[in-house]
């Protein structure tokens, strides 16, 4: 009897919380994630300002990923990058990560223009690593799924901080 | 037999996808949401730049919410605001929404200093509505849980766009 009472109570609590919540006219939505599919297990910064602060205070390089929802090249790269455990582990342990669907006001983040997908590394000393480039001379910070090895070696480059080169 | 085969196949698919994913050393994490608890059903902008663009292109006022994870006042306000269906509906239908745990470089968003929680409205004509204030003269854009009615009437004020006053 005690048990049954508890079940009813639980059911009521669950029901009231389910009925109590705001549901849009168009139906319930899946909450947006900050990862946007680029790695649900990573701790993503929300803004460039936040990311820079983390990079400086943790002395870790920052990887900024520019992408768009309706860009098939972004989707292809995202699939490969999010499923590569080696890259995910490195990003989790050695980098500060930020993915943006919107350009910032800082022009240093678009050394050769604004396009997606685009990956820019920033040293914790606040220097944009314009020297770390991909394979394409017309879009130097673009990567395709086939370039994942190059991306990994570029991440290794970014891990060698500028200060340590002095 | 057919059914059993399908179950095994399904189980294998589930297992392989579960085993295949990167899991941090510290254990699996809950993916971060952009809502950060302020309304899981709302469409949140990620950055101030994105929010401004949405406000302008949709001709809707923007509400910017500054808060911090380790601030009890933020938590209290969040609880009230996220559970108020009237506010959630208004935010969903009539506003562009942005919540930030980090200050932007735009000083117009901190008319009387940087503190949390702080709610600033921005007109789609890109004017920060410094005239829409709360109850406290020393922190004019702060709201406490008891101020939720005032917040609602301030939202109504923000909905009356500056252009329409001309």
From TrEMBL, chains A, B:
Signal peptide positions (record): 1-20
Key words of the record: Endoplasmic reticulum, Secreted, Signal
Main location per the UniProt record: endoplasmic reticulum
Localization per record: Endoplasmic reticulum; Secreted
TM helices/strands, residue ranges: none
Entries under InterPro entries matching the protein: AGR/TXD, Thioredoxin-like_sf
Superkingdom, natural source: Eukaryota
Any one annotated GO CC term: extracellular region
PANTHER family: ANTERIOR GRADIENT PROTEIN 2 HOMOLOG, ANTERIOR GRADIENT PROTEIN-RELATED
Assigned protein family: Belongs to the AGR family.
Protein name: Anterior gradient 1
Source organism (scientific name): Gasterosteus aculeatus aculeatus
């Amino acid at each position: 009897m005690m048990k049954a009472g508890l079940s009813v109570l639980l059911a009521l609590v669950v029901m009231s919380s389910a009925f109590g919540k705001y549901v849009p006219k168009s139906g319930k939505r899946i909450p947006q994630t900050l990862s946007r599919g680029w790695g649900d297990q990573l701790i993503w910064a929300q803004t460039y300002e936040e990311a820079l602060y983390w990079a400086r205070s943790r002395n870790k390089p920052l990887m900024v990923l520019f992408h768009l929802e309706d860009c098939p090249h972004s989707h292809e790269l995202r699939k490969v990058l999010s499923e590569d455990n080696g890259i995910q582990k490195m990003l989790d342990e050695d980098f500060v990560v930020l993915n943006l669907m919107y350009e910032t006001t800082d022009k240093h983040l678009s050394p050769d223009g604004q396009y997606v997908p685009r990956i820019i590394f920033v040293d914790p000393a606040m220097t944009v690593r314009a020297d770390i480039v991909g394979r394409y001379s017309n879009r130097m910070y673009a990567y395709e799924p086939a370039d994942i090895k190059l991306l990994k070696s570029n991440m290794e480059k970014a891990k060698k901080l500028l200060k340590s080169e002095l």
